[in-house]
Design goal:
Layout (H helix, E strand, L loop, with lengths): L9 E4 L5 E7 L8 E2 L6 E2 L5 E6 L11 E3 L1 H5 L8
Antiparallel strand pairs: 1-2, 2-5, 3-4, 5-6
């Protein structure tokens, strides 16, 4: 089971067959603006969202880490990344 100590909340299987480390970011912790790869729109500060990266790449830096709107992350198997 994944834990905060390891830096993520859970592991999810993606539609690409890879395992993804996923962390929920509460609104009060969301202080920067990010671009969601699911819809190509901004995730403004204060908006709860998820951050995900390939599990095999954990500890490889932030280059594979992406911030997603929660509904976009949940729909990623039904539509392509923009």
């Amino acid at each position: 089971m994944a834990s905060r100590v390891l830096g993520y909340d859970r592991i999810e299987n993606g539609p690409d067959g890879r395992e993804w480390a996923v962390r929920a970011i509460p609104g009060q912790a969301a202080q920067k603006v990010y671009r969601c790869p699911g819809c190509d729109q901004e995730i403004r500060g204060g908006v709860p969202h998820v951050v995900a990266w390939p599990k095999d790449d954990y500890g490889q830096g932030v280059h594979d880490r992406r911030h997603w709107h929660t509904p976009c992350w949940n729909a990623r198997g039904r539509r392509r990344v923009r």
